[in-house]
Design brief:
Elements lengths: L1 E5 L4 H12 L4 E5 L10 H6 L7 E4 L2 E4 L1 H11 L10 H18 L5 H11 L1 H23 L14 H16 L8 H10 L3 H4 L13
Parallel strand pairs: 1-2
Antiparallel strand pairs: 1-3, 3-4
Helix pairs in contact: 1-3, 1-7, 4-6, 4-7, 5-6, 7-8
The structure holds glutathione (GSH).
The site of glutathione has 15 residues, from α1, α3 and α5.
Length: 212
């Protein structure tokens, strides 16, 4: 069986959990407690030398980084597809995914916000996170307005949705971002909350989520 090294609140793990659920793949959940620093344990560093979740183990093969994992799953288990066949819509999916993974998530990653909090305090940490999430969301709101249907790039769920849903979840639940400026993204956030593959991937549903 596939094994996923994950942390309940990690948005990068969250994307992969959605992908696994959409493809109907069962997996064993291996919790890595990022707050306790388990990502830096020698055993975990053998799995992913950079010390980040998620990591997927498929038999004797190990792959880390949510994008690489999702593309591996896409080729090995093509149905249902995570990418549209239309070339331009596919490119927009890559663009939206990369706005989240390169221009938002790294700036609000645990190590970064912890560092800012230590150097400048909790208020600065929150301003920092909200500024960078807001900048990315403003771009996504503009980008997706010409492509969105029920979901980010049409009426089917694709890669962009797997990146957006966890980032929206974090913005709303963790960083209390005011979403009224992003009506399209807020509508997508609500649409995702109705889909079982997304519901079951939610942080609070994971075995390592705190009980209260
Ligand atoms: N590009 C990587 C980023 C992985 C990443 O940043 N993971 C975060 C959780 S979302 C992490 O493990 N952080 C631990 C730390 O900052 O020490 C991916 O998409 O998987």
């Amino acid at each position: 069986m596939l094994k996923l090294f994950s942390y309940w609140r990690s948005s990068c793990s969250h994307r992969v959990r959605i992908g696994l659920n959409l493809k109907g793949l069962e997996y064993e959940y291996k919790a890595v407690n990022l707050v306790k620093g388990e990502q830096f344990s020698p055993d975990f560093l053998k799995i992913n030398p950079i010390g980040y979740v998620p990591a997927l183990v498929d038999g004797d093969f190990v792959v880390s980084d949510s994008f690489a994992i999702l593309m591996y799953l896409e080729e090995k288990y093509p149905q249902p597809p995570l990418l549209p066949s239309d070339l331009k819509r596919k490119a927009i999916n890559y663009q939206a995914a990369n706005i989240v993974s390169s221009s938002i998530q790294p700036l609000q990653n645990l190590a970064v916000v912890k560092y800012i909090e230590e150097k400048a305090g909790a208020d600065e940490r929150d301003i920092w996170a909200k500024t960078h999430i807001g900048k990315g969301f403003a771009a996504l709101e503009k980008l997706l307005k010409d492509y969105a249907g029920k979901y980010a790039t049409g009426d089917e769920v694709f890669l962009a949705d797997l990146y957006l849903a966890p980032q929206l979840y974090a913005a709303v639940n963790r960083f209390n971002l005011d979403m009224t400026q992003f009506p399209l993204l807020l509508r997508l956030h609500e649409a995702y909350s109705k889909l079982p593959a997304f519901q079951n991937a939610a942080p609070e549903k994971q075995p390592d989520a705190p009980s209260s």
